[in-house]
Amino acid sequence: MGNVGAKETPILLTPDGRRIDGRLKNELRPVRIQAGALRHADGSAFVEWGHNKVMAAVYGPREVHPRHLQQNHKAVIQCRYNMAAFSVDERKRPGLDRRSQEISKVIAEAFDSVVFAEEFPRTSIDVYIEVLQANAGTRCAGLVAASVALADAGIPMVDLLPAVAVGKVGGEIVLDLKKEEDNFGEADLPMALVPQSGRLVLLQMEGHMTEEELGRALDLGVQGCRDIYEKMKAALRERYTLTPIAEAAR
Ligand code: UDP
């Protein structure tokens, strides 16, 4: 898997089933979601997920730039996922590389299947995801932040879009890989779920697992998404149940 280099593989799973950071196989890293983190965006959210720190901002529906992307029957959803140069320990070259373009595309497509885009023809809904600190699972953290930001912007959607990566580490199926598990594990499988319908709108896989393992990985990921979903709803509830005085002071 990515970034393996020549480093020696660390022990990823102890005999008593603990992972490199002490978590159990089905345990998420700590997740904190703040809805409405930015003043100037139409909607925003900040997500801290393990050692990931991700900001999302949403603008729109607004005029389409570049103009030729405009669609007469629906809004176009444009997404830009970007990793800051300081987000990883070895300085990342700034700017849009192929990985960022791919992630931007799959996230935009995931939102395309939940946003009621037909309600806003000839407009653009612009989603910006900035990864400030990365520790694996940033596309999922970005998706979660962007989904809460879309809700914060008042964009009508079928549902929120929780996401999580599952994978295979030390021969076992585990939830929510951190950096060492992503680098040295056998498989990484990010997914995003529409909770109400159970439909997966993002599913990617790097590495190898058997059909039986894939089934278990999907079950574990769906459960992880449902847990993240509760945290997303709680963040929005917290944002929108402030008293008017507290809101004015923001
Ligand atoms: N990463 C990095 N440099 C890069 C790209 C990725 O150090 O140019 C790290 C970063 O911590 C990222 C992890 O590798 O979160 C896993 O990257 P992957 O492409 O699997 O995407 P992610 O898991 O973040 O969605």
Can you put this structure into words, describing what you see?
The structure is a single chain. The protein is α+β, with helices and mostly antiparallel strands. The chain has a single domain (31-249), classed as Ribosomal Protein S5, domain 2, CATH 3.30.230.70. It has helices spanning 98-112, 138-152, 179-184, 211-240, 244-248, and strands at 31-35, 43-49, 52-62, 76-83, 124-133, 163-169, 172-175, 187-194, 199-203, 206-207. The strands form two sheets. The chain has a five-stranded mixed sheet. Strands 6, 7, 8, 9 and 10 form a five-stranded antiparallel sheet that branches. A hairpin with a 7-residue loop joins strand 1 (31-35) and strand 2 (43-49). Bound molecules: uridine-5'-diphosphate.
Please give a handful of descriptors for the protein shown.
250 residues; alpha+beta; Ribosomal Protein S5, domain 2; five-stranded mixed sheet; five-stranded antiparallel sheet; 5 helices; 28% helix; 27% strand; binds uridine-5'-diphosphate
Summarize the structure.
This protein has 250 residues and is α+β, with helices and mostly antiparallel strands. The protein has helices at residues 98-112, 138-152, 179-184, 211-240, 244-248; strands spanning 31-35, 43-49, 52-62, 76-83, 124-133, 163-169, 172-175, 187-194, 199-203, 206-207. It starts with 30 loop residues before the first strand and ends with a helix.
Q: Strand order, main sheet: write it out.
A: 1-2-3-5-4
Mean pLDDT: 94
Helix vs. strand class: alpha+beta
Q: Could you name the ranges where pLDDT drops below 50 across 5 or more consecutive residues?
A: none
DSSP summary, beta strand count:
10
